[in-house]
Amino acid sequence: MKALNVGRPLRGFSWARLGVALVLLGLGPFISPGLMPGEGAILALALGIAIASSGALLFVGPPADPRRLAWFICLLDTALITAVVAATGGARSVFAFLYVLCVTAACVLLSRTRGLAIAAASSLLYAGIVVGRTVLPLSVFFDAPEETTAFELLTMFLNAATFLIVAIVAGGLAERYHAARRELETRQKDLRDLQAFQDLVFQSVGTGLIAVDRKHRVTAFNRAAQEITGVATPEALGRAWSALVGAAISLDSIEAAIDANPRASVWRETTLRRPDGTTVPLRMTFSALRSGEGERLGLISACEDLSAIREMEARMRQADRLATLGRMAANIAHEIRNPLASLTGAIEVLTSPLATDDTRERLSQIVARESERLNHIIKNFLEYTRPAPLSITTLDVAAAIEEVLVLLEHRARPGSLKTARDFAPSILWAVDAQQFRQILWNLCLNASEAMPEGGELRVAAEVVGDRLEVSVTDSGEGIGTNDLSHVFEPFFSTKPEGTGLGLALVHRIVQEHGGEIDVRSSPGLGTTFTFTLPSRHA
To answer: What are the residues facing 473 on neighbouring strands?
Structure first.
């Protein structure tokens, strides 16, 4: 059996022992009146020894071997109690109950075996006191020897049996107590180790972790979260979520989404303003925080600083713009070279004295047409490179789509274009009205031109969460796989007469609105352009 640590129990036992001795010392004359001088001296001496030894245990310091000292104290107490009982009436002494306390203390401090040993010693000594009063001439301290009565014999056997029973019961309870205590200490150590490991992991991860309770108050805040938010952990703990992050991210909607799908994670992106005035872009992923029984305690958010990613994206966009600028310069040179060549040739013939009137008329038309073509290229290029500031107003998107489709239907050959509408009668959204119509017109015009022999043009629009989603689908021949990645580049066009600025302009307008545009195409099956615009305030 593992050795018991009796240091702290021995100290508690010493305090109890001191208290009992002092009480008995003060109340002894009242509890056992009529004591002889010798008997009173023995009682006082025994209690004095108990008080002195208890004081030494408490004030001298912890012993080197507490188990051996506890065993010695229990043996000493057995001897002292025997002296007290002998001095105060033997079988009739009211202090016989002290044996029970001594046996119980031995079981708790030592073990069941030693408790039984103390009980056996107490029984033998107590029996010796009862029997010895009739045969031992101790007239110096006691009265003359008397005959042992049947009552005293019965009391002797009952008390001896009580000592043994108390030793057995108290020993069993003490063993269970010590076993439970060892198990508890082991569990506490394991729990402390696990807590230390969890704290190490929690504090060491590079992702900011913020836990909130059901009242949306911060309950956990690791070192990475402190670095990201600029708020010290003591200041963050107990703080309301809205006071820490702001009102940009509402936890009510996140909790509703998680309740609908408990295993799902919900992420949001926001810009956090730190206490020092700087801002940091954040991606926050929320998950349910649950107890071991599965009860939801709150939410935990994993925060990721997107500053480095945003800088990388900016560098990539800059590199992409430079690459696009190089391709655009080559394309614009190609676009301008053709009409300039036509103009040069026509002007040379016009200046020739041999040119006839018919030739001059035809060449003048070529000059006018090519000049208009150059003007159109330059106008579109300026629109792309010098965008006008957005003028956000609340627009009925459904009505704007209807206007564009009506114009296309009147422009197309009768019966060649079939239009399909998939949107609500009225959709109000905050956009730049003129530029939104330009997006629709360019996409729908491209779709109709992709179906020269006729086909179906489908326009769909709906509000999904906090975003407007619009799609334009045609049933033309589609776009080749190699061309898909270039459709939004300036001056890239698969049409012989196209300038390649229409879709580039659409892409720029969508980005200025903070939205995204995507294209999906299958050769022979058609093309779908889908753009989404976020919610804005007019």
So the answer is: 458, 528
Q: How far is CA 238 from CA 216, 300, 363, 521, in A?
A: 9, 14, 83, 53
Query: Whole-angstrom Cα distance, residue 157 to residue 166?
Result: 14
**What per-residue confidence (pLDDT) applies to 531?**
95
Specify the 3-state DSSP secondary structure of 516: strand
Distance, in Å, from the CA atom of 94 to the CA atom of 164, rounded to the nearest integer, reads 19
- Alpha carbons 204 and 224: distance in angstroms, whole number: 8
> Residue 292: which pLDDT band, with cuts at 50, 70 and 90?
confident
Pick the CATH number of 392-534 from 3.40.50.300, 3.30.565.10, 3.90.226.10, 3.40.1000.70: 3.30.565.10
- Are 536 and 416 spatial neighbours (Cβ–Cβ below 8 Å)? no
Which residues partner with 469 through β-bridges? 462, 532
- Which tokens in the block code for residue 20? 């009992």
Stated pTM of the model: 0.42
Rounded Cα distance, 323 and 127, in Å? 110
For the segment(s) 205-305, the CATH number from 3.40.50.2020, 3.40.50.300, 1.10.150.130, 3.30.450.20 is 3.30.450.20
Count the alpha carbons within 13 Å of 113 in the hemisphere toward its beta carbon.
Answer: 1
DSSP character string of 402-433: HHHHHHHHHHSPTTTEEEEEES-S--EEEEEH
Residue 355 contacts residue 363 (beta carbons within 8 Å): yes
Residue 119 class from Cβ within 10 Å (0-12 exposed, 13-18 middle, 19+ buried)? Answer: buried
Asked if the model's pLDDT at residue 54 lies above 70, the reply is yes
pLDDT, tens digit (0-9, with 9 covering 90-100), for 212-243: 888 889 888 888 888 888 888 888 888 888 88
Q: Which residues contact 407 (CB under 8 A, 6 or more apart)?
A: 441
Over range 332-352, report the average pLDDT: 69
Most confident of 55-64, 425-434, 505-514: 425-434
Mean pLDDT of 508-528: 89
Residue 107, judged by CB atoms within 10 A of its CB (0-12, 13-18, 19+), counts as: buried
Question: Which pair of tokens denotes residue 52?
Answer: 């002195």
Query: Token digits for 349?
Result: 């013939």
CATH class of 311-385: mainly alpha
- 463 in helix, strand or coil? strand
For 60-110, what is each residue's pLDDT tens digit?
A: 766 677 778 888 888 888 888 888 787 777 767 777 778 888 888 888 777
Instruction: Find the helix or strand (DSSP H, E) in which 456 lies.
Output: strand 455-464
Question: pLDDT tens across 29-45, in order?
Answer: 665 555 555 566 777 77
Taking alpha carbons only, the member of 95, 101, 69 closest to residue 82 is 95
